[in-house]
Amino acid sequence: MALNKLIPGIGSLMVLLLTMLQTSSSGGTYAIELSGSFFKTVNAFLPMTYSIDGFKKLISLNNVNIWPEVFILLAFFVLGQLILVRAYRKHELPAL
Fold first, then answer.
1. What is the three-class DSSP state of 29?
2. Of 23, 30, 65, 66, whose CA–CA distance to 46 is shortest?
3. Which segments in the chain show pLDDT lower than 70?
């Protein structure tokens, strides 16, 4: 929603491209070690990477700590909400 508000017209295209990039570079389809160098670089900057890593740790039932992934996902959430509030204030509130 924030990208659609901040960049009308191409915001939804950017979200689609981001979703496709996350799918290919998060290690969900196959191991990130088998991917190219671009995907290895982008891997750390996408939230889906941390959700997949946390899920892998959770289903391993090996009593592994998933809190680092939880905190990083919370940071992505807070950042996204701040961008959304900024976009809303820029486009929806009347000028004072």
1. coil
2. 23
3. 93-96
20-30 in b/e burial notation, b at 16+ Cβ within 10 A? ebbebbbbbee
DSSP letter (8 states) at residue 95 = P
The pLDDT value given to residue 34 = 87
Distance CA 11, CA 27 (A): 25
Cβ-based neighbours of 3, under 8 Å, separated by 6 or more: 11, 12, 14, 15, 87
DSSP letter (8 states) at residue 94:
P
What pLDDT is attached to residue 95?
Answer: 60
For 26, which DSSP code?
A: S
Cα–Cα distance measured from residue 48 to residue 45, given in angstroms and rounded to the nearest whole number: 9
How much of the chain is in helix, strand and coil states, percent to nearest 5?
75, 0, 25
HSE toward the beta carbon, residue 66, CA cutoff 13 A? 18
Q: How many beta carbons lie within 10 A of that of residue 90, not counting itself?
A: 10
